[in-house]
From TrEMBL:
Protein name as catalogued: Uncharacterized protein
Tagged with keyword S-adenosyl-L-methionine: no
Signal peptide from the UniProt entry: 1-21
InterPro entries: Gal_Oxase/kelch_b-propeller (IPR011043), Kelch-typ_b-propeller (IPR015915), Kelch_1 (IPR006652)
Organism: Tigriopus californicus
Taxonomic lineage from the root: Eukaryota, Metazoa, Ecdysozoa, Arthropoda, Crustacea
Domain of life: Eukaryota
Keywords: Kelch repeat, Signal
Amino acid sequence: MKGLLLSCSLIAVALLKVNYAADSKIFLATGVGNLHSELIDPTTKENNCQNTPPYPKRVTGAVGGVINDNTTPLVCGGFPYEEGIVYTDLCYTFDFAENRWSPSDIALTSPRRFGASLTLPDGRIWVTGGQGEAGTTASTEIFENGTFGPGPDMPVPKEDHCIVQLDETRTLVGGGGPISTSVFIYDWSTQEWEVKSPLRLGRRGLSCGKFETSDGLQVIFVGGEGEGYFKKTTEILNVDNDKMVAGPEMEKENYGAHMVEFEKELFLVGGTDDFFSTSDILKFNVEAMTFELTEASLKEPREVFVSMIVQNDHSIRGLLRKTTKATSGECSKTLTRLSVGGTRDLQDCER
Ligand SMILES: *[C@@H]1O[C@H](CO)[C@@H](O)[C@H](O)[C@H]1NC(C)=O
């Protein structure tokens, strides 16, 4: 009996090891350069060496979210800087099972770049602000029932700002360009904007994320560019009592990163320190109020990109089994053994 239990649990452990333990992954696409799309788990260094294709267009400042019950990335808009046009409304979807981007019938209601976006708890996607034909815009769009339509205007135009979902009903937007200190919360249940305490310094290209302490719900605003320089500094808003205070400094400046909440922890993914894009993933340690370099890193340095949480379902696991190394250093061996895509996989993975 004891032996049977033991072998059952061994099998369970073995199964867990085959499949990635996490229920979700972070999907990243676009940025500056011809970057591969990538799936990351910031809690492990055994992420990379996937052979996921680049976004079909070299765009920066795109927006997006996940559709089909958090399984399908949808990326739209941005600045296709090679095409002699400065804004686009085009969207592409990524199919994990096929490991392929496809042009989509979905389009933004108006071309825009450098907006901020997220997937709302009810599965709709909210795209806010950015630059369009009429300059920096306060307009927003909501993806609902298969199509983008108008959303509530922000109180002021914003581009290159940050956005974070606070709870089931409230979304915060902060900072952005033209270099701004303003912070607002939209409450979907009352359909009203609340003005919050401003940032102490104007910042664009900042990142923001939420966390809880015994003092309540907090939002940290990280880095960005203000008054001609990139920042190491952060600020923290106590959402409940509306106090904005200085937060911890990072070791390096950071612009164009994403703060991502993953398994109840906050990670700062990518960005640039003014000179170089980074592939670093920092963890924000809420207890110690410090930024810690994690062992995880991006396959490629990336700034001004789109990130979203995707469900780690069977098609993602299939893709990872086909294209990911099992442990660091074993990339080519694993791929050779599986011989999926042959030498093309190998070349893409050997970096
Ligand atoms: C989307 O579909 C739902 C359910 O049919 C409906 O309640 C909602 O009003 C629709 N939204 C829009 C924008 O058409």
